[in-house]
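tl;dr need the bound structure. longer version: we got a ligand (magnesium ion) that a collaborator sent over and nobodys looked at where it sits. i said id run it. heres the input, straight from their email, havent touched it
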Amino acid sequence: MRVLLVAPPGAGKGTQGALIATHFGIPHIATGDLLRDHVARRTELGQAVQEHLDRGELVPDAVVLDMVRDAFIESRTSNGGGYVLDGMPRNMTQARALYEIGRSLEMTADVALHLKADDEELTRRLLARAALEGRSDDTEEVIRRRLALYHEVTHPIVDWYAERGILVSVDAVQPVQRVARQILTALEAMRPLIDHVPEHARRPIDLTSLGTAFGHA
Ligand code: AP5
Ligand code: MG
């Protein structure tokens, strides 16, 4: 299973990414976590990107693309090539480059999972997290910048995945376990088909109007 998460800050990429990874036994590759680890270890790369992270700006495309290529190769060697990719792509350039990396390694995404949530809810979640985790970019001003960047350069990618027929959209403003159940049910239903249905024959799947009935099922 190869899944990309395309979602705004605070929508639950980290939360749901970890659950998907555990469920399918695949690596959770989170570009933000990898970058923050470099910052914490004060590596050369960490020192170069710290200011970008602190201001909520994107780091240069080449930095994250190199990281993800390495993580893909590692997954192919040790894990059969599955992944859940969290935090990439962030713009159209990354989306196209990622597709080329995927093609060269025969690891293009099976599913682009879009977690939908409104800015008010996202801001509330991130400010609540700030009190617990103290992430340097969880301040009101930087959250505003991260959300603005998401709307401007990241969200347009969603349409590109819809056109490719690999988009699955989920309402992320529901309890964590309910969101997880909807995602895992959809991915499990798709799993047997993924290797047999070519991309051009696929259609986007919109679960956002399932509402609570599904969650209680
Ligand atoms: P990144 O680490 O990817 O941060 P982000 O996109 O801002 O998203 P978050 O990690 O804040 O939120 P999330 O969606 O993971 O939500 P979470 O599950 O934690 O990127 C950080 C920075 O790195 C970027 O700004 C940029 O500088 C750089 N970067 C990274 N990738 C890059 C790239 N490809 N190109 C260039 N630069 C890049 O949940 C949030 C909170 O809500 C948690 O407290 C959680 O417990 C809670 N929560 C989750 N789900 C629910 C729910 N359903 N209901 C209630 N609460 C919930
Ligand atoms: Mg995250």
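gonna send this back to them w/ a short note. The first helix runs from residue 13 to 24.
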